Amino acid sequence: MFQPKTIIEPFRVKVVEPLPVRTRAQRAEALAAAQLNLFSVRACEVTVDLMTDSGTSAMSQEQWAAIFRGDESYAGASSFFRFREVVSQLTGMHHVIPVHQGRAAERILFSVVGGEGKTIPANTHFDTTRANVEASGAVAVDLVIEEGRSPSTEHPFKGNLDVPALQKMLEQHAGSVPMVVVTITNNSGGGQPVSLDNMRQVRAVCDRFQIPLFLDCARFAENAWFIREREPGQESRSPKDIAEEMFRLADGTWMSAKKDAFGNIGGFLALKDDALAEQCRNLLILTEGFPTYGGLAGRDLEALAVGLQEVLAEDYLEYRIRSTRYVWRRLDEAGVPLLRPAGGHAVYLDARGFLPHVPPSELPGQSVSASLFLEGGVRTCEIGTVMFGRTQDDGSQSPGPMDLVRLAIPRRVYTQSHMDYVIEAVRYVFEHRNQLGGLRIKNEPPTLRHFTCGFEPIGWDPLAPLAAAARKPRAAY
Ligand code: F0G
After folding, report:
1. How far is the CA of 102 from the centre of ligand 1 (A)?
2. Is the pLDDT at 228 greater than 70, yes or no?
3. Nearest residue by C-alpha to atom 21 in ligand 1
4. Is residue 54 within 6 Å of ligand 1 at its C-beta?
């Protein structure tokens, strides 16, 4: 039987969007104007945009068709009920609160359950989650397993929560912990999955202390696929079946539907608890909208309802995970230091290994990220000291737990040749890594600084052409 090795995109192209192709000189100008912050670069300057997989999916013909069914009634729109049905079936939770994106759910939820004196443990809080927990006055604590804190350690479920550490924390502070959060997949920890076994153990600890368990489920389908691939005894189950079990272990969940629902916008909060749902709905009305649209158009709810079902298709998930792994493997073969193993939605470069001569306090991830854009027009995102570190009173930087550069792959958007181009660009910058130096932050806002801060180089010119003399012999390919 024909057993192809090539993993093909399980779709063909119906509408095309031109890619911006720019010169290095144009990019140098854009980068200088942006003070080396890629969030300040216009998308028209970017050739392959791997800044995020969030809101960047290509929608399917079924999603576009559903958009025409959008019911834009202010109250009681039929689109809401279709959306609610899909979310309730998937999660087993009957309160479904639509929001315009994940962080709106976080703000509402933590406004209700957070506050001074509270502590919210998670495997790893995503940046907006941490910011919303902290904005409420509560403390966000990351309890990912030891293996999940080191880029080079191999482990099938590096997103797992450290159960003994959670237990210890609850023995001391159970009264001040309003919920335990499990992020699937663990985005800030490298897009790594959490096993079903780990979720069951966390559930058991939550039961012991009578604390609700919440899933931040932005990439639940990718997590379900990893469970099927890697967890003994799960290999014959459908991703849908696994996903349903994950959700049934939880008391509540929120989703940025801009990821595994193929939405360009959207999210939801789903809950079991009636009183909590009522409090959340009241806040929703204050800032998002009426509970049957929550900041979204009826047509968005329709597209998300379709996307949430499509994402669990086995051919899609197999392609998704294997195509990410393809990029990872080709970079690994070239000796590029990577977070191991490949994540679901992204490949993460280990910037501390990539630029060992640049200390974490000099922002090696940002330096690599800026250079990838300059040389190849590839936009990536630093997940490290810029995102999670802090400027101390004396002006020095406290480093983040790791310094990563994320190459997040939008869903159903780029083909293999785009990714081959990206691989070439990363290899090129890697070959010239000795010429890259460190950066410092020039100006920063009080929270979520990575979005808007400016950078300046420490004693080097980040816009200078990379000298050919520093290249390794081509045989290194
Ligand atoms: N939780 C996780 C795990 C996320 O990855 C994100 C967003 C959010 C919550 C917040 O959702 O953006 O819809 O408000 N992650 C994006 C990213 C931004 O690039 O990884 P949002």
Report:
1. 6
2. yes
3. 102
4. yes
Q: Which CATH number fits domain 61-310: 3.40.50.10490, 3.40.50.300, 3.40.640.10, 3.30.2350.10?
A: 3.40.640.10
Contact 366, 462 (CB under 8 A): no
- Ranges in the chain annotated CATH 3.40.640.10: 61-310
Find out whether the beta carbon of 102 lies less than 6 Å from any atom of ligand 1.
yes
DSSP symbol at 140: E
User: For position 130, what pLDDT does the model report?
Assistant: 95
Sheet hosting strand 346-350, strand order edge to edge: 346-350, 404-408, 381-383
Q: Determine whether 249 is exposed, middle or buried from the number of CB atoms within 10 Å of its CB (0-12, 13-18, 19+).
A: middle
CA distance 143 to 209: 17
**Residue 162, both tokens:** 């450290």
For a pocket test of ligand 1, which of 259, 260, 381 has the largest count of ligand atoms closer than 8 A to its C-beta? 259
What pLDDT band is residue 395 in, cutting at 50, 70 and 90?
A: confident
| Domain 24-46+313-458 bears CATH identifier 3.90.1150.10 | yes
Q: Where in the chain is the domain with CATH 3.90.1150.10?
A: 24-46+313-458
Q: What is the pTM of this model?
A: 0.95
pLDDT tens digits, 256-311: 999 999 999 999 999 999 999 999 999 999 999 999 999 999 999 999 999 999 99
Cβ(256) to ligand 1 under 6 A?
yes
List residues with catalytic annotation: 74, 126-127, 216, 218, 259, 450
Check if 132 has its Cβ closer than 6 Å to any atom of ligand 1: no
Query: Is the C-beta atom of 57 inside 6 A of ligand 1?
Result: no
pLDDT-based confidence at 469, cuts 50/70/90?
A: low
Query: Which of 23, 54, 35 shows the shortest CA–CA distance to 370?
Result: 35
How many angstroms is it from 82 CA to the middle of ligand 1? 24
